[in-house]
TrEMBL record:
Protein name: Peptide ABC transporter permease
Family that this chain belongs to: Belongs to the ABC-4 integral membrane protein family.
Keywords from the named record: Cell membrane, Membrane, Transmembrane, Transmembrane helix
Upper taxonomic lineage: Bacteria, Bacillati, Actinomycetota, Actinomycetes, Bifidobacteriales
Sequence intervals crossing the membrane: 21-45, 356-382, 403-436, 462-481
Amino acid sequence: MRFADILRLCGQNLLRRKSRTILTVLGVVVGCCSIVIMVSLGAGLTEQNRAMLRQMGDLTIINVYAQGSASGAMTMGGASSSGSGSGTSAKLDDATIDDMKRIPGVVGASAQMTLDTPVRLTADNGRYIADYGTIEAVDLSQLDVLGFAIADGAKPVKDDEVLAGQYFAYQFMDKYRPEGQNYRQQPYDMGDGTVMECDDMGNCAAVPADQAKGAFFDPMTTQITLTIGDEESGGATAATGTTGATGTSDGGSGTAASTAPNVFKLKVTGTLKEDYNKGQSTSNGLLMDLDQLKAMIAKADRTAAKTTTYGSALVKVSDISQVSDVEQQIRDMGFGTNSSEQTRKSLEEQSRAIQLVLGGIGAVSLLVAAIGITNTMIMSVTERTREIGIMKALGCYVRDIRIMFLGEAGFIGLLGGLIGCVVSALVSLVINLIALGGVNGTTIWNAIVGGEDVSRVSVIPWWLYLFALAFSCAIGVVSGFQPANRAVRIPALDAIRNDG
């Protein structure tokens, strides 16, 4: 028999018993939908985890630190701590940074320093005061390569210019305001066009982002005064060895303050977008060039040793898939590393485990559908025994009869898989629309394909549709294999004499 004839017979036999075929196909549809939807929920969890990690910062940044040094802290009176207690760890210096830049997949690298010394920050001639602050430094020539995002303004070009974190101004107190009104806490973005604002007394309210009060002052239009060192000793005792009446306590105006070696006037040229993977300075601190911070430390404390090694560094990788390999190469160089890669892998392993569990639950439904297909085909063989005998008597090959029954079973699986995929897509769309909170043009599109700021609950990748179709067809063929073998084993004469 020609293949076209076999296909025609398959279609005729299935249409001859429409109710039985429809019910069998419906079982495959339910099983296919169960698998696709269950796995899509696991894939949606993976997408949500990745979105959560993106909010935490750049996933392609690797934090490198010298063994025995938890950070790149710089203190007055000495260089940064680097290396382990045994003194055998590798040195994190400029030459090492250059070696890291040559690692395949690395697009940029810079040493990172953090000023680990008490500081005072003031603005507007001492009206606004912050008794703490994060002062960090990187190689500003690597700023763009490392992925630091400047939300407003431009990169510093002069020695007294710095970048401020996104919420830098919110740590300042207005000393002319009464208690309870002298602080404005950092607002929290609600993600719906509003921000949560809280006063110093803990009273919070959500307001439109464009109506938020904001900080007391704009750091880009206000000169910042940085005082390094202990104020009780005037801050310069460590540098000069003299009693410390070298500057005012608030770093304000005055001849003494302007000439004190530990007081620095800074101009903010831009504000950074918050990214904790690149350092706390992107949130509520100041970021400057490495040479600038070294010069400030040397001026504030002339007894400080010249810095040749660092406690930490930032390494930028071109793609998240290369983070693990680059981290391993850096560890082989004798340094410790930290990145979002381990967290990402852990979350993805959890997501895969959940997907397997959910997929297993869906597979039970498809197993039931497979039993239904087997039952349908066995009944079909029983009812068509005489027909099989006539076909054998007319000279039909055994393989053609087997192919016919397998084709019927495979077609039931294919049709059920196709319908199941369509139904799964619609169910996934409805789930995402409900989760995203509405039906409009943008939301429907985002519910289907996602987006940078969209976390879908149900995600059906293209390969899942192909897998569902292939699996449904395979279930159909496997379920029809035993009935097909039963059909070809029936002797022709016995089959013809059968009255069924």
